[in-house]
Amino acid sequence: MKSSLLIEDNQIDQAIKLLDSTLKNAANNYHPLHCELAKLNHFAANLYAQAGAQLAQEQALNKAMFIYQQLLPNFEHELSTVLYEQYQYYLKERDYLQANNFLNKQLLHCSTSDQKCMKGRYESTMLGLSLRKYSQTLKNAELWLANNTQQSSQFYDITLAKYTALYEQNTLDKTALFDIDITQLSKQQQVQWLELVIKTNMFNALTSQQMQQLIDSAKSNSSLAFELIAAINKLDNNPHTQWLAQLEKQNHKPHSTKNQFSPARDINAIIATKRVSSITAPKNASQLKIGSEYTLEWDSKRLIGTTISILVNHTVSYKVNSFDDFNNLKQIDWHPAATNIKNTGTAQIDPYHFMANGTNRFKLMLVSDLGYWSLSDGLFSIASGKTVDNGLEHFLQQGKLVSAVITPKALDTYPVGQQKTITWNANKLIGQTVAMYVLHDDSRGIGDKQQVDLNIVNNRRWYQFAEELPNTGEFKLDPALFNGRGNNYKILIVSDLRLLECF
């Protein structure tokens, strides 16, 4: 085809135009469900991919898929191929939920014993595990293991994935972990195996022979050495302290930074494989209120560690199932509400410390000092209310109140996701830097400009969304920074000289 030659000659734009024209002509001359039209779209999708035309590639694959679906049971092999390529497309785009959807569709057209489909079943097992779809993981793991008994690297990947899914469903026979020969595992698999042993509270049950195997493996596996040292130092009543001397002589460091992230400053880094289900309160649709203490509850036997940190999301535009994708969690702003809390399974907290309010927008993240972590189910709400601490970091004086804010004006709308601007008269609001607050409470009685009742201001709940900004008279922002809801906000700006403006 001429377009492929143009791609080879790096004439990308001409190649794309020719492909577009070819598909348009074909659509005009073929029946809409003609198999040749499906084949042409499939072929064109591969050329679009080479040319970097991702949207056109996606559209061509969708067209080919639709035609082949209408022609079933004929062309089932071709449909399976297109579905797998759609899975690969979305996987490359890091849209893991959509990729998983197409992979599972492709597997519907596979024989349970077809070796050609085993690659897809392996990938579905591992992707299902990363997305916490444990029924999918178990189904494909069982089918894969039934047709692959040789103890290869993929065999142990599948076995560990299966055991992890069983653990999450509370159906794992813990002793089955000790049937695995850890000397046959890869470095990463050894760490995953140890994490499972710790999660299932079987670390103390490790024999001297098993510990010696781990110590020997740790000589060339720094991540394994790191996990062993942390477990021996922090797990209660473990009988393995005599091994520390050997371990501390070895090179030990945590997992690669590519596979982990720290949700907030001074919080332990987390990795996908250390996620556990442990939080029982708050639940989906729970109602928390600022000023009223709430009891957080979790299973401390599953969230392994001595102390925990408590965090809440301050990015509120994610759908609830997006939290199942570890890569999405890295993009979320996590606010630490409390640290170094004893891991007893309960803790009382005033939701004021979450520094947020809104309806069905929030998830709790608990992180232990061993790096095990858990997210609460669904999304919960935080309602405004009175609290001893009003959120203000500045002492406000009536005599230093000035009228300086220019925008926003009364009745202005600041939609989340759009860049908006706060402006003020920097000559009136004297100082080098300013801090900004938004009201998360009832605005009645506060007043504005120079007619402000500071007694009411100090008895309302404020949220600081910016600090130490240069006093230039302008600040551009996404209103998502307000971290609230509703249509009745007030802005408070305070300079480093303690001059203030309330609008």
Shape: flat
Lateral arrangement of strands in the main beta sheet: 7-6-10-11
Number of strands: 21
Enumerate the spans where pLDDT stays under 50 for 5 or more consecutive residues: none
Report on the biggest sheet: 4 strands, antiparallel
Mean pLDDT, all residues:
86
Q: Which structural class is indicated by helix and strand composition?
A: alpha+beta
- The Rg value, from CA coordinates, equals 29 Å
> Percent of residues in beta strands?
15-25%
Helix run count:
15
For the termini, the CA-CA separation is 66 Å
Indicate the percent of residues in helices: 25-40%
Can you tag this structure with a few keywords?
single chain, alpha+beta, about 500 residues, 15 helices, flat, 4-stranded antiparallel sheet, about 20% strand
Structural write-up:
The chain is α+β, with helices and mostly antiparallel strands. The protein has helices spanning 2-8, 12-29, 35-51, 54-70, 76-92, 96-107, 118-130, 134-147, 153-168, 187-199, 208-218, 222-234, 244-248, 326-329, 454-457, and strands at residues 260-261, 270-271, 279-281, 287-289, 294-298, 307-313, 334-342, 346-349, 358-362, 364-368, 373-375, 380-383, 405-407, 420-424, 433-439, 447-448, 451-452, 462-470, 474-477, 491-495, 500-502. The strands form seven sheets. Strands 7-6-10-11 form a four-stranded antiparallel sheet, with no helix packed on it. The chain is flat, with a radius of gyration of 29 Å. The N and C termini lie far apart (66 Å). The relative contact order is 0.06. The model has no long low-confidence stretch (mean pLDDT 86).
